[in-house]
Amino acid sequence: MLVNKKSTSFRIGLAIAAVMAALALIGYVWTPYDPAAITGSEKFLAPSLRHLFGTDNFGRDIFSRVMVGVGTTFFIALCTVLIGGTVGTLIGAFTGYYGGVVDEVLMRINDALTAFPNILLALVFIAMLGFGKYNVILALGVAFIPSFARVVRAEFARHRTMNYVKSARLMGASHLRIMFRHILPNTRGVVLPALIIGFNNAVLAEASMSYLGIGVAPPDVSLGYMLSESQSYMMKAPWYVLCTGLVIVLLILGVSMMGEGLRKGGS
Amino acid sequence: MKNILKKIGMMLLTMVIVSFFAFLAFQVIPGDPTIKLLGSDATAEAVAELRAELGLDRPFFTRYLEWVIRALQGDFGSSYIYSMPVSQLLDGKLGVTALLTGIAFIMIVAASLPAGLFAASHQGGRLDRFLTILGQVVMAVPPFFVGILLTLGCGLILHWFTPGAFVAPRQGFWHSAAYLVYPAIAIALPRIAMTVKMLKSSIAGELERDYVRTAYSRGNSPSAALYRHVLRNAVVPTVAFLAMTAADIVAGSVIIEQVFAIPGLGRLLLTSIANRDFPVVQAIVVILALLVVLVNCIADIVNQQLDPRLRLQ
Amino acid sequence: MLEIRDLHVRFHDADHEAVRGIDLTVADGEIMGLVGESGSGKTVTAMVISGLMPRRRADVSGQVLLDGRDLLALDAAQMRKRQGCAISVVFQEPMSAMNPVMRIGPQVEEALRVHTKLSHQERRERALQALRDVDLADAEAVYRKYPHQMSGGMLQRAMIAAAIISRPKLLLADEPTTALDVTIQAQILELLRRLNREMGMSILFISHNLNVVRKLCTQVAVMEKGRIVEAGTTERVFYDPQADYTKRLIAAIPMRKKLC
Questions:
Q1: Distance from the B304 Cα atom to the nearest Cα atom in chain A, whole angstroms
Q2: Of C147, C167, C187, which residue constitutes the final position of a domain?
Q3: Pair C174, C80 in one domain
Q4: What is the model's pLDDT at position B64?
Q5: For residues A83 and A137, is the Cβ–Cβ distance under 8 A?
Q6: No. of H helices and E strands in chain C?
Q7: By C-alpha distance, which of A213, A210, A222 is closest to A74?
Q8: SS in 3 state form for C105-116?
Q9: Are residues C126 and C191 in the same domain?
Q10: CA–CA distance, B268 with B288 (Å, rounded to integer)
Q11: How far is it, in rounded angstroms, from Cα A167 to Cα A171?
């Protein structure tokens, strides 16, 4: 699978995603203002050169808060995909390759779980664990395992009967070696887009959960929570809502365009 | 016959698994409802007494089985917090959520089919590229943000509706539905884009097939071939996709209900989780699972009607 | 009846022509074989004649005269009047040429639905008759079946039924027996010969299989790389081939008895 570097949507997507990533990374070490600095006098300022996104109801600079928020979201989404992807791949690889009773049973359970919306699963986990950044990561990561496992399993089951696997067996390769040195690389065409979609879903899920107040909560900064706060001041300070929301949209858009570009160049 | 039995078996299995996991989950939760009810400085005896009253001191599996038996009769127990039967609590809210998701689903189907057909017949060219990008942008906007924008634009600025002034369906069906249109749009919009994309690629794929060439060889015009032959074939994978979408909508409604302050199952679920109100959460989770499973079943049946190859001989 | 004059076809994304100026005549009631290997341009020619070659894919020049009228000069709507009516096509793979979600009956009568104003009942009658004409037993049962419920041979008969139902002047058969078992092949060839005799319908039979062509066709044209290198009666071409290519083709046939 080649990445079609000439694909315009890939390039635009990459550019947008890169900007977001840059904001996030810079936000870790530096922001124009202290994101938590409450100033009584500078409340509800409209966007200007001093405050690119304006200020909020506590007089905090929205742009700085957005930078930190994007960092949080990025971090959570990446960890989610890491957990869900790794565990899901391991489960999917073993069940898809070996098949048998274990595979059947796990498949039924998996079907039941994937029929159920991701977010609700994560909700239940959060209820178990309580709020906070690391709990969200755990909850989302585990909630994403079933869908990854399903995709990987289907691929491994498909490749298992192919000729190159048979010849590898004949040459004495061990099962583990076949699975991870031979089959796994060949599944990139399907797994990579799934990872990208997973990333976007994780961003969406995290934003939704913090919006509802059950995800990342103060003092941590999160875009979803900011959106829910900004809703009360929609008429007074519309830039709060619009700028925060726009950033979320751009993040998702950038990554999904990259995903589109990958798929077009691949197949 | 065997097929139907298998399907029903799957349904039951899903329900059992979901309800079991939900039940299990709440055993593991640190934090007892008793603490919430009595306060953190309650005496040990008062706590023990309340626990016995609520039946929390009996072994796990007994309680699960009891719950299942009662649930099958429609009795979901009583809410810990509100001290009334859960079924009563769910009463009005189920209708609201059902109406909301129903409207959203109808919107998705009604908008995607014509849009998908249009997109498929105008492939290639600048209009197509523009629509594709538009679709991607729409899919990137989180539903709750759409909801917020709608509240801002249509509600506060244009005054097409008053945010927060929700009327229950019982008290005024059309009034209620009119209010629900906006949250329904928020839920439906990204999914319409996804379904259109799916339908378009499905149709485009079918147009490459041999039977389309046969249709042309008999004198069918391109549009006749599309409507008489291709559509029925292309719709089959889309039906399965729509079933998945139905599950998504249910999840989406949980969030949208917060945005628009709608008293449906979603809000109840969230507050109950926060309050550790197990019976309510359990009941809602199971009902939602049942809804999802039902929709999948219906989708399967519809698909079998459309594509005879899926039927058992 | 069908006369092709100086036909050239070049695909837009190709640097050479697929058909380089061929002339061909099919008389009324004749069975003409068009023979060649893959890439010889025979299928392309068939697609052009039947109007299934989209203008946006290839440049076509020359004339294709059906009863004196140049098909290449017609617009899409005019061509559609002839497709399925004056010209019918039978394709190679019956399983994929049929719509999998539609029953056989409606597919067989489709040409009638497009071109005539017959009632549903009348169309059904004709379809049943067509299915009997192609030797399918229990026409009513077949009418109600779906393609995946029938064997390849039966499906191809149904396809032929669909093609003849409008009593076309010309039947284009593009490798109709290639995907079938050998015993079934013979039956289909016999069927085509009988239909040609009874209905006076001309057949342009395209194949890479010389044996099959020899059994069915009275006239043969041999194509190589877009040109017709030899044409004439079957007997003459097989027993006295002039072109090198024809000789090579004949030599490559595995035969039980030799041609003497």
A1: 19
A2: C167
A3: yes
A4: 76
A5: yes
A6: 12, 10
A7: A222
A8: HHHHCHHHHHHC
A9: no
A10: 13
A11: 6
Mean of the pLDDT values across residues B92-111?
86
Span B268-296, pLDDT tens digits: 888 887 777 777 877 887 787 777 777 77
Q: Provide the number of structural domains found in chain C.
A: 2
* C128-157 per-position pLDDT tens digit: 999 999 988 888 999 999 998 999 889 999
Contact list in A for residue B273 (CB cut-off 8 A) is 123-124, 126-127, 214
Residues 6+ apart with CB under 8 A from A176: none
Give the Å distances, CA to CA, from A34 to A37, A47, A66, A248, B183. 5, 17, 12, 21, 36
CA quadruple B146, A54, A136, B36: dihedral sign: negative
Chains A and B contact (Cβ–Cβ under 8 Å for 3 or more pairs): yes
Q: What is the pLDDT of residues A44-87, one digit of tens each?
A: 777 777 777 887 788 788 888 888 889 888 899 999 999 999 99
| Nearest chain C residue to B209, by CA | C96
What is the extent of the structural domain holding C106? 94-167
Q: Which of C108, C114, C188, C111 is nearest to C143 (CA)?
A: C108
Q: Name beta bridge partners: C32.
A: C204, C219
Question: What integer is the mean pLDDT of B110-119?
Answer: 87
Whether residue C98 sits in one domain with residue C78: no
Using the CB atoms, write b or e for B224-262: b if 16+ within 10 Å: bbbebbbbbbbbbbbbebbbbbbbbbbbbbbbbbbbbeb
Strand C87-90 and strand C58-66: the pairing is unpaired
For residue B28, what are the β-bridge partners? none
C153 shares its domain with C42: no
- pLDDT score of C173: 92
User: Could you tell me whether strands C31-35 and C58-66 are parallel, antiparallel, or unpaired per DSSP bridges?
Assistant: unpaired
* Shared domain check, C105 and C211: no
Contact B229 C102 (CB under 8 A): yes
Q: Give residues 230 to 249 of B whose Cβ lies within 8 Å of C.
A: 232-233, 236
Cα distance between residue A186 and residue A247, in whole Å: 35
Question: Can you tell me the distance from the alpha carbon of A264 to that of A91, in angstroms, rounded to the nearest whole number?
Answer: 28
Please give the C-alpha separations between residue A205 and each of A122, B133, C198, in angstroms, as whole numbers. 9, 23, 71
pLDDT confidence of residue A267 = 37
Q: Which of C144, C167, C190 is the last residue of a domain?
A: C167
Does one domain contain both C204 and C78? yes
B311 interfaces chain C, CB cutoff of 8 Å:
no
In the CATH scheme, what is the homologous superfamily, with its name and number, of domain A75-240? MetI-like (1.10.3720.10)
Three-state SS for chain B is CHHHHHHHHHHHHHHHHHHHHHHHHHHHCCCCHHHHHHCCCCCHHHHHHHHHHHCCCCCHHHHHHHHHHHHHCCCCCECCCCCCEHHHHHHHHHHHHHHHHHHHHHHHHHHHHHHHHHHHHCCCCHHHHHHHHHHHHHHHCCHHHHHHHHHHHHHHHCCCCCCCCCCCCCCCHHHHHHHHHHHHHHHHHHHHHHHHHHHHHHHHHHHCCHHHHHHHHCCCCHHHHHHHHHHHHHHHHHHHHHHHHHHHHHHHHHHHHHHHCCCCHHHHHHHHHHHCCHHHHHHHHHHHHHHHHHHHHHHHHHHHHHCHHHCCC
Provide the pLDDT for residue A106.
Answer: 82
Spatial separation of the C-alpha atoms in residues C166 and C109, rounded to whole Å:
9
C82 & C200 share domain: yes
Query: What's the length of chain A?
Result: 267
**How is residue C142 annotated by DSSP?**
H
Structure-model confidence comparison of residues B128 and B216, the more confident one: B216
B218 and C114: CB-CB below 8 Å?
yes
Please tell me whether residues C77 and C136 are part of one structural domain: no
Nearest residue to B309 via CA among A218, C28, C150, A167: C150
Higher pLDDT, residue B102 or B25 = B102
B23 vs B253, more confident = B253
